[in-house]
Amino acid sequence: MPGTAGKDPGNYYSSFSGTSSAAPIVSGLAALILSINANLSWSEVRSIIRNTADEVPAMGGENFTDEYGYGRINAYAALSAVEPSPAVPVNFHKELHSIPGGWNPILVWSPNSEPDLAGYQLYRKFVPGSWQMRAQLSSTQTSFTDGEIFISASGRNIEYVHYKVRAFSDCNYSDFTNSLVIRHNELGGFKQIAENPTPEVVLPENFILSGAFPNPFNAATTIHYALPELSNVEITVFDIMGREVTTLVNGLVNAGFKETVWDGANASGQPVPSGMYFYRLDAKAVESGERFHQTRKMVIMR
User: Fold this and answer.
1) Domain of 231, in residue numbers
2) Does a structural domain hold residue 194?
3) How far is 86 from 217, CA to CA, in rounded Å?
4) In this model, does residue 7 exceed pLDDT 70?
5) Which of 4, 68, 133, 168 has the fewest C-beta atoms lying within 10 Å of its C-beta?
6) What confidence tens digit (pLDDT) does each residue in 188-228 have?
7) Which phi and psi (to 5°) does residue 82 adopt?
8) 121 Cβ partners below 8 Å, 6+ apart?
């Protein structure tokens, strides 16, 4: 596997090849694979790295795949292959939540059986429009009431909204369900319901720390979490040695579905190197005093 060896005085990059260049890169990927599944044999790890490698595009009319052995390693594809994708959620359907003058749609599906399931993502699309994530839920939540959508009891439903859902683990996502189409009256305003002018706010029932997305990532990743009530929250990033890298959230946060973004930099704003990192949520509810602690992993591939 070729590698670069630093800048020469002549203002160009020299190169070298061989196992001395490839070994640390491949070894690092092997370590990441084993961190996900420590029960894999060395031959299984080797097969994963080989089978997920990318062919090197032709350069100057030549294809350099053979010069890379089995191709150029693809860390994202290799890590995704270690952990099978969750199954597509089944029995995706609509139920109704009664409100004055009509209903809100409740999106419901059957729970997945994977033991390492991290949760579900529900997407919504208006016509015309593009798909947007409406909610990220824990592995125990298999329904979501969309308080922004009003289905009128009078039958005056003039717009269409589409929903779809997928399951996810720490490293993989299932395919989406087929989209579910609902005819509704309007988004948010509830202009025809004087006694209920504000949509119902849907709050999570439990504390949740979801998987970062994307993961692995290069430039930035988004961490989703949920708070059932006003809480003191701290979200901290650590390296693989347990040293604190940076703090993303530190203070009072209102109840609801929340997110924070890590740009892959330390507390001084300097980019951190490739590797595995951990993020931890520490929360204490202000009213009930309930405490919650959970740690998850993420991988930076520069």
Assistant:
1) 208-300
2) no
3) 20
4) no
5) 4
6) 433 333 333 344 456 777 888 887 888 888 888 888 888 98
7) -65, -40
8) 133, 135, 136, 137, 165, 166, 168, 173
